[in-house]
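Onboarding guide, step 5: your first structure request.
Type a short instruction followed by the sequence, for example:

Predict the 3D structure of this protein.
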Amino acid sequence: MTTETQPQTKEFQAETKQVLRLVIHSLYSHKEIFLRELISNASDACEKLRFEALAKPDLQGADALSVTLSPDAEAGTLSIKDNGIGMSEAEVIDNLGTIASSGTKRFLEDKEFLEAGRLRQLVRKYSDHLSIPIVLKAGETDETVNQAKAFWTRPKGELSDEDYQAFYKHITHDSEGARLWAHNKVEGNIEYTSLLYLPKRAPFDLFEREQKGGIQLYVKRVFIMDKAAELLPPWLRFMRGLVDTADLPLNVSRELLQNNRTVEKIKSALVKRSLDLLEDLAANKPEEYAEFWKTFGAVLKEGIIDDPGQKDRIAKLLRFHSTAVSGDAPEVTLAQYLSRAKSDQKSIYYLTADTLAAARNSPHLEGFRAKEMEVLLLTDRIDEWVAGHLHEFEGKTLVNVASTAADAGSAIETPEKAAAETAFKGTLERLGKTLSGKVASAQMSARLTDSPAVLVAGEFGVSLRMGRILKQAGQKNPFATLPILELNPKHPLVERLRDTTDEAAFADLANVLYDQAMLAEGGELDDPAIFVRRINRLIVDGLAAQPKIILS
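The system replies with structure tokens like these:
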């Protein structure tokens, strides 16, 4: 099983030494963690051999897999040995010294790690959960100092919060710890044990939907694969943990996991338990749930799109900014929104924008503010798709206030609008011709109280923001339609537009109103220089029209 080789010495490059020094002084400033990681690596090597031996039983030989600690106080050394599968020569050259080898001197500067009692304490604190026996050589005796029993097979009653956190850090290498967890054993048609963790912080690749997630698969306590994507959907990829089952073959592959009925049942149960965890956190620890939402909320929203069967449960977990709440953190639930809604309100009103500031200052909100109607403010890029798939909540449809949807219009309709349509009929016709190719039509607005004009999407068209997102992603908008320009009949600029007889001046003012409305939507102007020239001409014309005062 072993091959005798001659030792070789490799020298790190100067740049590598500098990086390693930073790592040693930061990540492993707490020296106990250094020992934990070395033991963990040795255990992983044994698990690797155990897995490879499934296909090639002669690899394991007669010796039981184990990790051995041999302290030598006289020599000032601590030997950590395993009889698993290590790295190839090339892997050793590339990886071995990255952290462990370079930290040896600093690790041994304090003689506490050469005392059998101290090693026994640290192993039980950090590595008691490992299924590989950790053997301490003390003189002539060998002592197994951990329970050498898979952590998740132990009864929940004998495990403390510290035990669960230690195991979480072992499988994730996350120094911060988990927010909460769920440990379940299922017996019946299928048998499995699951241990799910909700982390506190996000991994660097959280928003890469192709990354596999963090659920490990074991079969009969034999490690099969890391990041088994088939065990949780992408919208729960922030969960960490493992599943151990006896109902899959030991030689299972990713291909066999796909469309497997046992795997589908386990996956369904894991989704339910994950949502149970989140619902419990939201109900009993709202401040912690707010922290979770800040970190992982955008990913959870993907479930509204990907998983119609869980849409109702996920919808209750959503959190929003709102015109009724002035804070910077999204905290409004759909249930809270409905509890404040007027008794005759037909819909749940929302507005999407690129930033919270842009949403709060949007002209689309003016009419709703005047009617004291709450509007949810959605600022994540995914919100456009979320609103389009959620459709309704508890019988109330979701309506974008930046559209001409009948529900949005009727909510803020005023008697003055009909009179304005008649008074500005000729102006609207001229405006439609002047802005031909830019707008589908022009009409008077009931939604504006301060701004002169606003662009709205047609009732069956996508929002202007969605169009921009698709364009930025290089995708074609299959529902692209020209927007509608709505005017505020009480605004001085709109009154001036009506009274302007000069066609060139009318065109200047019409295009300025359109460009201003486009900027208010977060859009880009086709030609900013022309916009500036038009503004300058209007300013000069306005100054020229004012009476001159001559002092003598």
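Each response can be followed by summary notes, for example: Confidence is low (pLDDT under 50) at residues 98-108.
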